[in-house]
Amino acid sequence: MSGADPWARLRAATPARIGLGRSGAGLPTRANLEFQFAHARARDAVHAPLDLAMLKDQLEGLDPVTVTSAAPDRATYLRRPDLGRRLSDEADLSGVTGEVLFVLGDGLSSAALEAHGAAVLRACLDRLGDTDVARPVIATQSRVALGDAIAQATGARIAVMLIGERPGLTVADSLGAYITYMARPGTPDSRRNCISNIHTRGGLSADLAAHKICWLLRQALRLELTGTGLKENAGALEAPGTTVGLPDS
Amino acid sequence: MAYRTLLGGETFRFDTLAQVMACATPARSGDELAGIAAESDVQRVAAQMVLADLPLSTFLTEALIPYETDEVTRLILDTHDAAAFAPVRSMTLGDFRDWLLSDAASPATLAALAPGLTPEMVAAAAKLMRNRDLIAVARKCHVTTAFRTTLGLEGRLGSRLQPNHPADDLQGIAASTLDGLSYGIGDAVIGINPATDNIPTATELLLMLDELIAKYDIPTQTCVLTHVTNTIEMIGAGAPVDLVFQSVAGTEKANEGFGVTLAMLDDARQAALSLNRGTVGTNVMYFETGQGSALSADAHHGIDQQTLEARAQAVTRAFDPLIVNTVVGFIGPEYLFDGREIIRAGLEDHFCGKLMGVPMGCDVCYTNHAEADQNDMDVLMTLLADARVHFLIGVPGADDIMLNYQSLSFHDIAYLRNTFGLRAAPEFETWLARTGIVSGTGQLTDDRAATLRLLEAG
Known about the structure:
Largest sheet of chain B: 5 strands, parallel
Number of helices of chain B: 22
Helix content of chain A: 25-40%
CATH topology of the domain at 145-455 in chain B: TIM Barrel
Distance between the termini of chain B: 66 Å
Strand order of the largest sheet of chain B: 7-6-5-12-15
CATH class of the domain at 50-223 in chain A: Alpha Beta
CATH topology of the domain at 50-223 in chain A: Rossmann fold
Distance between the termini of chain A: 24 Å
Strand content of chain A: 5-15%
Mean pLDDT of chain A: 90
Radius of gyration of chain B: 21 Å
Oligomer: heterodimer
Order of helices and strands of chain A: HHHEHHEHEHEEEH
Largest interface: A-B, 61 and 68 residues
Number of strands of chain A: 6
Number of strands of chain B: 15
């Protein structure tokens, strides 16, 4: 046992920065520099634009419609969340109709949408069978509530916003899903259900996320509500995928 | 009624008390986003001059948000203690600031005054204060609370151990918890933010933490930070709930955005009290607040975010909390743009809470889309420790892998204790000393044998 890293076993259980060691009460030099590197990368992720062509390729056959919010650029988007919740004047949603609406938003991490958006959407569509699902909408410079404006414009009964979450140090490509019954501008957050941390470094797999999203969708359509009145209780998958993994270091 | 002042040959006019308050607030992005910030630095000073001449009692007769339509206003005015307020009732805001800084405002005097102060009064006083003033006064406000540990005692610095995991994995959370314990963290609470709003998961997490502190015989309290309605359900189902958590805001409408009412909070507190799980005290509530929450819920009524934060703290005061913290840099740069604004807000929030008698702590934190970094957090945590903050939050390596933001590391809290001679809560410190993690005077030692023993037992 002597010489072995006593944290090795525990480190396998979480991507958290445990067992870093210490210099006095301070961080050792190596750990300190690794942290600075991760922060620099996360800052870059916030500002990277969505690769729209790549996302459209991933959505081939699903005929997505693209809109932007009223925030013209990233700098404005970061300071003006109100603009990120409104559609730009040019947005055209005339070809989008259906009871259930999926919106794919860049949010604060376009990398998250590029990595997991199409996979989650397709896994949901596989489960929704004969449900009346609208053409998917891709939305850039988007906040969660932009889904409300899009749902209103299309008349959807329920909106699922798949959106990039704020980049963290360990995971810069985490996707969140917000499910809102009768989403309309002004809907309070307490009327949404959220599935967060959809990613491959210890988060939810696309398949498990879709399982939970679709469970919530069905309950929402039956009970005609989402939010604090609807508790997510989907239970485990029959054969769960890898939901806990190692950080790729 | 309009407010006017002459400054540098120019007349400044403010139409409402709310406008005076908003314009008098040190600059920050959230008030600019709301369109209520001062238009120039000179206008800001003019508003501060108006504020300095206003009687403190103005806030008892002029509600910023109408009494009839907002239950937070009703709570503030209906529970105001006129007898406690009497010693300062004839002061202006300027007089009040001077008095707070003087020796006459002793710890005992300030403690007796707290129930006589409304959030609007303390928010207004903060607007007239520099950062050093906020520290000097807050340090004189002693607030003690207890459940299984006693927090807020002289020379102590509490800590929340936050072992979050993106998939709520029990082993992963236990691993982070052991890491934190090895730095002496966790005397305020071991508290998990669950990744999903799911009662079976929250219950599993609660059972795991309860078993863990029983196995190691650690005197502390645990919490799963889920919605208050979930916690009420869990208590009903017999889960081992120590503390009830809820995020709250400073207006009825913003609280509606959180899905809570004052009546629900009272029900939850009664339910937790009925379990009778505390050993040295009965403070069973844990609240989080933060500047910008009302604006983000479109429920700010034209009131500046610092004043609304103080009102949120007044909400927490009504429920005798064990711990309250502002999540100061969490909401994002649209509310507090950079390190400078985050540091200022952290000191304001701590000052306002303590002056009202709230056991105020802080999540010293920032997000990756804010113009801030760990150096800014070093400054704020050191200032707050000097101001005798109730508790701070620590996560492994300062990186919360579930909520995707940076808080303090366990190392940081150990630094504050070691460098400034601060100590953990006495009950918890006894356990730390017994395991060999800290020295007889409460400092983390360089001896790693205690950590190895902790890991081998796990």
